[in-house]
C-alpha cells in the first residue's frame, strides 16, 4: 500500500478552501508522501491562484515534479499518480490529475468524470516522439517502455524523458444539483464504473462510511491494486 490522501478545509483570508487528493505511489511511498506535504502548499503559494487558478495549479504541478526529481537521493526513483481537488468557498471546484487516479462528481445522481485517465496507448504518439515505446503484452495492460502503466506521473526519473508531468485540469460550478464528489485510485476504478460508484455512495449519508463502503466493494470484486477513496458530500 503506497497511497496517501488529503481531506481537509483551510481558511485563506476571507476564503474557505476544501483540499482533497489521492496520491497513488509506485516503487515506494516516498514520492506520494512528499506530495501529501508539499503539492497543495505549492498551489496556494502561487500568486496567480486567486486570479488564474488553472495557471497556478499547472505551474505548481510542474514545480513540484522538478523538486521531486532534484531530490532523487532522498526520495528514490519511484513515482506517483495524483488527483487533486480545490473547492473554493463551496462554490467552484478545480480538479487536476496525472495518471489514472480519478475524480467523479454526481449531479442529480448522474456521474460525471472530471479527470482524464492518462493511458499509454492514448498518448503513444507523445511517448514515441520522445524515443520511448508502449508495450502491449497479452494478459497485461499497456506500459511505457514495458514498465509503467500510465503516461503521466510525478517522479519516475528513469522514465521521465518519455513521460509527461503536465496535469489535465478542469473546473465546475457546484450548484444545487451537485450532491457529491469522489476521488479514488485506480484500484477502485479497475473494478467499478463511475455510475456504480456514485450509486453506492449516494445511499450512505456519512461520507467517510461511503468511502469505506466503496473500498469494501472493490475488495469484494477482487481488486488487486492499492485502493484509496475520498468522498465529499455537498449539502
Distance linking N and C termini: 32 Å
The pLDDT mean sits at: 94
CATH uppermost class: Alpha Beta
**Low-confidence parts, pLDDT < 50 over ≥5 residues?**
none
Domains, number: 1
Q: N-to-C SSE series?
A: EEHHHEEEEHEEEEEHHHE
Cofactor: Mn(2+); Mg(2+)
Organism: Mikania micrantha (bitter vine)
Keywords: Hydrolase, Magnesium, Manganese, Metal-binding, Protein phosphatase
Catalytic activity: O-phospho-L-seryl-[protein] + H2O = L-seryl-[protein] + phosphate; O-phospho-L-threonyl-[protein] + H2O = L-threonyl-[protein] + phosphate
Explained architecture:
Its cofactor is Mn(2+); Mg(2+). Keywords: Hydrolase, Magnesium, Manganese, Metal-binding, Protein phosphatase. One of its GO terms (molecular function) is metal ion binding. This is protein-serine/threonine phosphatase. This protein has 235 residues and is of the alpha+beta class. The chain has helices at 30-45, 53-70, 72-75, 124-129, 186-189, 194-202, 207-220, and strands spanning 3-12, 15-26, 79-88, 92-98, 102-107, 110-113, 134-135, 143-144, 154-155, 168-173, 178-184, 229-233. The longest helix is centred in the N-terminal third of the chain and has 18 residues, at 53-70. The chain is globular, with a radius of gyration of 17 Å. The chain starts with a strand and ends with a strand. The model has no long low-confidence stretch (mean pLDDT 94).
